[in-house]
Amino acid sequence: MTLSEKDQLYNWHPYTQHKTTGLLPAIVKGEGALLWDENGKEYIDAIASWWVNPFGHSNKVIADAIYKQLTTLEHVLFGGFTHNKAVELSEKLLTLLPSNQKKIFFSDNGSTAVEVALKTALQFNYNKGIKKTKIIAFEDAFHGDTFGAMAASGITFFTEAFKGSLLEVVRIPVPTDGNEINSLNSLKTLIETDEFAAFIFEPLCQGAAGMVMYSPEILDKMIALCKRRRVFTIADEVMTGFGKTGKTFASDYLVNKPDMMCLSKALTGGTIPMAITTFTQEIFDGFYNDDVNKALFHGHTFTANPTGCAAALASIALMESQEMQDNIRKIHLKHLAFETEIKEHPKVKTTRVLGVIFALEIKTETQESYYGTMRNKLYNFFIENGVILRPVGNIVYILPPYIITDEQLEKVYGIVEQAIEII
User: Fold this and answer.
1) Exposure pattern of 12-32 as b/e (b: 16+ CB <10 Å)?
2) Which end of the chain is more exposed for a tag (fewer CB within 10 A), N or C?
3) C-alpha span between 207 and 392 (Å, rounded)
4) Which has the closest alpha carbon to 402: 126, 33, 108, 18?
5) pLDDT value, residue 369
6) What is the pLDDT of residue 371?
């Protein structure tokens, strides 16, 4: 029995309807931008395995840091203790984050980073006797699958079964080109009610919505509006963080900085699950009290895991290296060149590029569903041709690891062009 066949017997995979899904490729090895399955077939990982592996698979620098840490201190509880790697990582991050960020809270993954931010926004107001119980989010947002994060997400089929069990979240239009004023006015109307604790957003690029992009200028205006009305702003940088947009964080494009930031995915270079939520001093001070009941009672068993912290420190050092910064710029320029070439194709509706993110929308006669026929046809074509891409409906995006070679990236572009022709 093959590994894929055993997997089908035992495992329940995310975002998978197993009745209509066949055997899944069983990956047994990874190196750089490449993966190999149990049959020896090679794949280019053109989405960095859900955006987490910017420095490639089996990266020796990160692996060595993990090994060294494992032989010193693999884990210690963070409730009531601390350790050198958590302190080093927090100290390093605070040199990279916007200057208004002062406190670091560790958790396990992107969803929990968002949970922490939402809970903090709500409890901050509760601690002060202020009744603000609602959240503002963009339409078609995706912030994760735990209950608070799911409530803030706007992709309805992900949340339909749980409608009556979620936080109250009101959605506003995404401020894409031509829709800025409508979005800004919608936000203004809501926050003037003084019912909202926070506005959460994916800064500049909505990942799971299909890499929907909007300008830093309009987001600056929205953050400024929230600051005037005492509504906290939460930048969900789980996808955009650590170089994806061409800067360390998408928030680096902004003049007005968010009150909270959520980090995960590329934080540890795709090795060990870890997440971080960061806060201003004002927010931390809202919990700093003689009354123990005003503390933030939230935690995870593996909070600030020393091995994960060591991986994160190594990952950040790689990101800051001249080689990686040059690679990010190179990929961006190659994306722009491919965009110029492909955007006039009669089957291409729109294209967009931000940092190492490229996306194109294929023309369709009807609304294409998230996991619809076109998406599945495209996905299967990519896998058959040795490229890992996960289209969102009729939107194909590329978000490669920074170490992808020119030849590998050209192959990805070529397969995308071929895929457009078969649709």
Assistant:
1) eeeeeeeeeeeebbebeebeb
2) N
3) 10
4) 33
5) 74
6) 77
| SS3 labels along the chain | CCHHHHHHHHCCCCCCCHHHCCCCCCEEEEEECEEEECCCCEEEECCHHHHCCCCCECCHHHHHHHHHHHCCCCCCCCCCCCCHHHHHHHHHHHHHCCCCCCEEEEECCHHHHHHHHHHHHHHHHHHCCCCCCEEEEECCCCCCCCHHHHHHCCCHHHHHHHHHHCCCEEEECCCCCCCHHHHHHHHHHHHCCCCEEEEEECCCEECCCCCEECCHHHHHHHHHHHHHCCCEEEEECCCCCCCCCCCCCHHHHCCCCCCEEEECHHHHCCCCCCEEEEECHHHHHCCCCCCHHHCCCCCCCCCCCHHHHHHHHHHHHHHHCHHHHHHHHHHHHHHHHHHHHHCCCCCEEEEEEECCEEEEEECCCCCCCCCCHHHHHHHHHHHHCCEECCCECCEEEECCCCCCCHHHHHHHHHHHHHHHHHC
Residue 368: the pLDDT is 72
Mean pLDDT, each 10-residue run in order, the chain (423 residues) = 97 94 97 98 98 98 98 97 98 98 98 98 98 97 95 85 90 98 98 98 97 98 98 98 98 98 98 98 98 96 97 98 98 98 96 98 84 90 98 96 98 98 87
Q: What is the pLDDT of residue 231?
A: 98
pLDDT for the residue numbered 100: 98
First to last CA, the chain: 35
- SS3 assignment for 272-331: CCCEEEEECHHHHHCCCCCCHHHCCCCCCCCCCCHHHHHHHHHHHHHHHCHHHHHHHHHH
The pLDDT score that the predictor gives to residue 304 is: 98
Which residues are CB-contacts of 160 (< 8 A; sequence separation ≥ 6)? none
